[in-house]
Amino acid sequence: MQVTVVVPTFNEGPNVRELVRRIGDAADGLDVEVLFVDDSRDDTPDVIRQVAGSSGMPVRLLQRPEPVGGLSGAVVEGLRAARGEWVVVMDGDLQHPPEMVPVLLETAASTGADVVVASRYVGGGDAGGLDGRWRHLVSTASSLLARSMFPLRLRNVTDPMTGFFAVRTGSIDLAALRPRGFKILLEILARNKVVVVEEPFVFGERFAGQSKATFANGLRYLQQLTALRFGRMSTFALVGAFGAVLNLAIMWGLEQFGVHYMPAAVVSAAVTIVTNFLLLEHFVFHDLRSEGRSVWKRAAQSFTFNGIEAAVRLPFLHWLVVLTGMPPVLAQALTLVVAFLLRFVFHAQVVYRPRKDAPDRVTPLAGEPSTTTLDED
């Protein structure tokens, strides 16, 4: 098995020598090359050249004149330039331990998978190297949102945000990728039908330098999610909008017949909850209804969540208006946006969560492509 380790770098000079040394030690006996795809604005390319001259394994440098597509674009360039049948993608700051490289390849060989994801969130994994509680929260929430938007493609993936994975280059369509920002694994999994397995790993401390994560990168991630999976969420939003109009129409109609507005609000909410569930069943999550839960269980979970959400949201709306002085319309808009996201995540991750599956443990012949695929989202 020929292997290319692709390392996208941006001002990572102090990490290069130690990274190459540890990859060489871990991959001793394997046919491995290291390919740095560099967007640096410092002396990192010179350091890579120096290390390449003294390394016992092939080390190549692909220096990009313009950082098109950010880190994801760099990884795609590396995939195109890789000589190996398999590519291991990892960061250059040593938070991804090089000792995991042979582990990922062994898992690929034993399972026949197309992609092996190094996960911080599967049994034995740890995200301790993230900087602070805020980074932990953002990472967890981002992963949850991605898995909600791609419940089938990510059914076996606990960490779609990781930048550490192995991929068989022949299993993916590089021309279909639209790299942007940091999250290239999500792009690969969303645009290709591949068999995925995970291996736990401990996300380490940076060897040198500082994190490149920024608020702008977070916005690019949301743009990426929207571009990749606008269909399911947009349909969910249309159902929600229809429900809101129906709610108001029922309440107004009952008031015209002299019903007090509070009972009218309760009746309209109940009718809307039932109607929305039926619409979700037939138009939004119709492809996930056969994942092992009865319609009655799905209905009970949906009704319970919507009831609790309404009971919590109204007092929170009152708190925003009374205690903060926020205009009622703005406060209502904020609560509705938050409620929409919470409802979407709950229904995707709980009510219609797909069952995990696993590929057979087989040892494929050398060069034999895997024939197992995942369902479309």
From TrEMBL:
What residues does the Glycosyltransferase 2-like domain cover?
A: 4-169
Q: Does the keyword Ion transport apply?
A: no
Entry superkingdom:
Bacteria
**Cellular location of this protein?**
Membrane
Membrane-crossing ranges are: 235-254, 260-280, 329-346
Q: Does the keyword S-adenosyl-L-methionine apply?
A: no
Q: How does the protein associate with the membrane?
A: Multi-pass membrane protein
A Pfam family cross-referenced in the UniProt record is GtrA_DPMS_TM
Question: What InterPro entries does this protein's entry cite?
Answer: DPM1-like, Glyco_trans_2-like, GtrA_DPMS_TM, Nucleotide-diphossugar_trans
Question: Keywords, A to Z?
Answer: Glycosyltransferase, Membrane, Transferase, Transmembrane, Transmembrane helix
The record, for Gene3D superfamilies, names: Spore Coat Polysaccharide Biosynthesis Protein SpsA, Chain A
Main localisation: membrane
| Residues of the GtrA/DPMS transmembrane domain | 235-351
Query: Family assignment?
Result: Belongs to the glycosyltransferase 2 family.
Q: What is this protein called?
A: Glycosyltransferase family 2 protein
